[in-house]
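Request: Not sure, any thoughts?
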Amino acid sequence: MELTTIWFVLIAVLWIGYFVLEGFDFGVGTLLPVLGRNEGAGGATGETRRRQMLGAIGPFWDGNEVWLLTAGGATFAAFPHWYATLFSGFYLPLLLILVALICRGIGLEYRGKVDSAAWRRRMDVMIVGGSVVPAFLWGVAFTNIVRGVPIDADMEYVGGFWNLLGPAALLGGLVTLTLFLTHGAFFVALKTDGRLRHDARALALRLGLVGAVLAVVWLWVVHASTGTPLSWALAGAGALALVGGLVAGRGGREGWAFTGTFVAIALATASLFVALFPDVMPSSLDPAWSLTTENAASSQKTLGIMTVVAAVFTPLVLAYQSWSYWTFRRRISGHHIPTDVHPAAATDETVARDDGAVSTR
């Protein structure tokens, strides 16, 4: 196999890892005001439920973002022309995603630093907005990449911002948003207990039905012009995995339900890269002007050095992240969350619990 093909596959794997892991983070963040409501008399408060949800993703969200950084760095090093054209042509959407991710990080890190309900509400807004924007715009971006954008003979994007917001692209944004919401709701159901667990599972089933319909239409639109037998097979398998996850969720098996959405997102993303290959950014003006794994790649020497480095460090990163998920594998209960300690005066142990370490109890 050519080194260019190997690195195309590795970049695809990095994006798959990012979407299946960061996807549930986006879903949980977006659902914060929906699932984080008061249960009524005798039930958990909305603040307790929100802290359960944030505690569920607390140990993972910043590690999950590493997949994005690695995918961007690998693209820059392995396919510099792809990176240059993508980041110049998609500058505004990618800037919005970056700002949203920064806002979300601020909200997650600083929410419990001030003993003020108004402060926490402002941080919640940042978390929700910082989750919705990238969840939607990643679908817009990848739909455009696979279907093709205006690229001229000099490998430069010659369209405008509004060229990226066609009906198919907006549909792609809705698909990724609804799939991540379903994925996140099942993750909340898997990682919490009490009424929050049941509410999250019920919401995931409703969102999943909407997401399944939108995803089928979107995959048909995307693969109609660029699909291959393998990409169609992967898309179909992803649809079946989503349906299987919803069936498992209906039966109360949150672990299998989360696995179903995990596999569905992974296979759908893989189908896009299979449909894209050997292009990396097709030109809608002239197929001869498309960026491919050959004309957009670095030198063979550069790819060879990168391959050795990736072979050494990738297993270490995967082992560490697997260990972190295993360590924080238990459910988070509402009674684990202290209600009589103000965040500003909390001890180190209390802060650790608010950040999610309580899940090891």
